[in-house]
Amino acid sequence: MTAVAAVHIALALSLSPLLVGTINRTKSLFGGRTGQPLLQSYYDLARLLRKGAVYSSTTSWIFRAGPVAGLAAALAALTLLPPGGGRSPLAFAGDFFLFAYLLGVIRFFLVLAALDTGSAFEGMGASREVMISALAEPAMLAALAALAHLTGSLSLSGLMGGAGEDGFIAAAPVVLLAAAALFGVMLAENARIPVDDPNTHLELTMVHEVMVLDHSGPDLAYILYTSALKIWLLGAVTVGVLLPLSGLDPWASLGALVAGLFVLAAIVGVIESSFARLKMSRVPVFLGGAAALSVFAFIIVYRS
Questions:
Q1: Domain range holding 230?
Q2: Distances (CA, A) of 156 to 80, 249, 258
Q3: How confident is the model over 156-196, as pLDDT tens digits?
Q4: Which residues 6+ apart lie within 8 Å of 120 measured at CB?
Q5: d(Cα 205, Cα 128) in Å, to the nearest integer?
Q6: Into how many domains does the chain fold?
Q7: Are 301 and 150 in contact (CB under 8 A)?
């Protein structure tokens, strides 16, 4: 593992909750409110880790293992993520498939834990989560396939920033379409507006939040931390695809990636301040649009 890759992992582990704080702070500024402190996510995690977990008598070991297994999958996915234009610690041909399905593992164990409670309410949220993921994964894989055809690489380390500055100008339509599709997937996978509202508590509209209602203490802290890591993971792929990082110095590339992530978090905050959540019946249209962008990108690069 290179020093740049080690620093990137350390930054992801330490700064990912700050992305959530940046989103919430941006929303507060747009709403004309003081809002919560920028470091509120860290305070919440520390408070939950000091508490004890409460388990229902109807749950099994699956409920207890869900948050831990999800966090382990997120940490594994982080080792596949390149630091800007460099190579990830575990880079290999086809690693973007493993990356995509490690994100699926996070969702799988969260859904299993929700179903294990025996609650019809949490089962409803789990069903919605599976529907959203079934629509988001094809869009993400099609976008990555288009970028793989463009760069000639089957590794995330080649896809992110692989076009370079000159190549980016020539391949701008493909890169922009793929980045837009990945951004839509990032919003969906992280339960952000317009697909889901992470702050809602309305029973008929909740998706992600309803699945974690029975979790408490350290288990809930693991889930919140995993969610912050998912924002970093998918946001880094989006930023890495959009920026021509491969021609930069490794440390400059890492700095540009981290700066881009916080700009992206601010953009998410602006979107959540400017748009309402979509009706559930419109979510497939939104993700279908992301998939269409990915397909258009693949057609352009295939025929060029």
A1: 3-303
A2: 7, 18, 17
A3: 988 886 555 555 556 788 889 999 999 999 999 998 988 98
A4: none
A5: 10
A6: 1
A7: yes
Unique residue bearing structure tokens 């509202």? 197
- Prediction pTM value: 0.93
What would the pLDDT profile of 216-255 be if each residue is shown by its tens digit?
999 999 999 999 999 999 999 999 988 877 777 888 889 9
Q: Give ∠ CA 172-283-121 in degrees, rounded to 5.
A: 140
- On the question of a cis peptide bond just before residue 284, with omega within 30 degrees of 0, the verdict is no
- Under 8 Å CB-to-CB from 76, ≥6 apart: which residues? 102
CB distance 23 to 17 below 8 Å: no
Give the span between the Cα atoms of 89 and 83, in whole angstroms: 9
3-state DSSP helix/strand/coil percent for the chain, to nearest 5?
Answer: 70, 0, 30
